[in-house]
From TrEMBL:
<feature type="transmembrane region" description="Helical">
    <location>
        <begin position="57"/>
        <end position="80"/>
    </location>
</feature>
<dbReference type="InterPro" id="IPR013879">
    <property type="entry name" value="DUF1761"/>
</dbReference>
<feature type="transmembrane region" description="Helical">
    <location>
        <begin position="92"/>
        <end position="110"/>
    </location>
</feature>
<feature type="transmembrane region" description="Helical">
    <location>
        <begin position="6"/>
        <end position="30"/>
    </location>
</feature>
<feature type="transmembrane region" description="Helical">
    <location>
        <begin position="122"/>
        <end position="146"/>
    </location>
</feature>
<dbReference type="Pfam" id="PF08570">
    <property type="entry name" value="DUF1761"/>
</dbReference>
<protein>
    <submittedName>
        <fullName>DUF1761 domain-containing protein</fullName>
    </submittedName>
</protein>
<keyword id="KW-1133">Transmembrane helix</keyword>
<keyword id="KW-0472">Membrane</keyword>
<keyword id="KW-0812">Transmembrane</keyword>
Length: 147
């Protein structure tokens, strides 16, 4: 199964996940997200060392690559299942709804957990969840069209 993965697409989507995350959380939704997630005021900075920031970046890029590989495998299994179980695994729309099912099943517990266990705002949940929807849609499009 691992031999059928497009590792160039994994590399690109891993990096693009970082770029998308930065744009989503630090540019597009910066004011509501950062204030509610980190308790930041508009003009304050998080007091985080440079080495901690580098460590966070490295960990997130590794997790992004793992996510891309896992999604690529799930997508291939879903396509193959279409042949075995009689659904059309070769239609992009069907693959999109499969992707949304994965987002609902595997990311919602973590994003909603921020409200339930960390007592963050529903705005944080909405920004994180919408990021995951956009990110997984990006993954789908890359792995679907870049074969």
């Amino acid at each position: 199964m691992l031999s059928s993965i497009n590792y160039w697409a994994v590399l690109v989507t891993g990096v693009l996940s970082l770029v998308l995350g930065f744009l989503w959380m630090a540019v597009i939704w910066a004011k509501p997200y950062q204030g509610l997630m980190y308790g930041k005021k508009e003009d304050s900075q998080l007091d985080v060392s440079k080495s901690t920031k580098i460590q966070s970046f490295v960990i997130y890029i590794l997790v992004s690559f793992v996510t891309s590989i896992a999604f690529a495998i799930c997508l291939e299994l879903w396509r193959a299942g279409g042949q075995a179980f009689g659904y059309d695994g070769d239609r992009l729309l069907n693959a999109f709804w499969f992707t949304m099912l994965l987002v609902a099943g595997y990311t919602l517990p973590f994003t909603v957990g921020k409200k339930v266990w960390q007592f963050k705002s529903w705005v944080v949940v909405a920004v994180d969840t919408s990021y995951e929807i956009v990110r997984f849609t990006m993954l789908l499009l890359f792995f679907w069209f870049w074969q």
